[in-house]
Write a structure and sequence with these properties.
The protein is built from no helices and 14 strands. It has about 140 residues and is mainly beta. A hairpin with a 3-residue loop joins strand 9 and strand 10. Keywords: Repeat, WD repeat.
């Protein structure tokens, strides 16, 4: 399976090797900057220039949750291995930990002096790694 974005703010999920489109998502109002599969493979999280993070449910074939709170472009997003939390990295110099069960931000991590460009959970832990345009990497305890 391959997920791609396009200039018209759509994303498409393609099956390999036959190249058939499995699902198309429309909902962001600006370009897509990243995507990540849920650990169970039943959902997808996307990040966008529209400052939002969206969660897509494959069974519902559409957006099931929009997370708003960043002031600028969201460059990256990733799932925690338990599937209950999403991390996001933004051009607003912050990263956030979202609790998808209560549909809100649990923590905002501040400290980078420039855009936070990527974010990743260490598998099966509460540690988050961010990289920034300020030329630093940071490890965070997301508890």
């Amino acid at each position: 399976i391959v997920v791609t974005g396009s200039d018209d703010y759509l994303w498409k999920m393609w099956a390999l090797p036959d190249g058939n489109i499995i699902m198309t998502g429309e909902g962001h109002t600006a370009w897509l900057s990243g995507c990540c599969f849920h650990p169970s493979g039943t959902q997808l999280v996307t990040s966008s220039g529209d400052t939002t993070v969206q969660i897509w449910g494959f069974s519902k074939r559409g957006c099931i949750l929009t997370l708003e709170g960043h002031a600028h472009t969201v460059w990256d997003s990733s799932w925690h291995s338990c599937g209950d939390f999403v991390a996001s990295a933004s051009m607003d110099n912050t990263s956030k930990i979202w609790d998808v069960n209560i549909e809100r931000c649990r923590y905002t991590m501040c400290g980078h002096k420039d855009s936070v460009n990527s974010i990743e959970f260490l598998p099966f832990s509460n540690t988050v790694l961010t990289s920034s345009a300020d030329k630093t990497l940071s490890l965070w305890d997301a508890r």
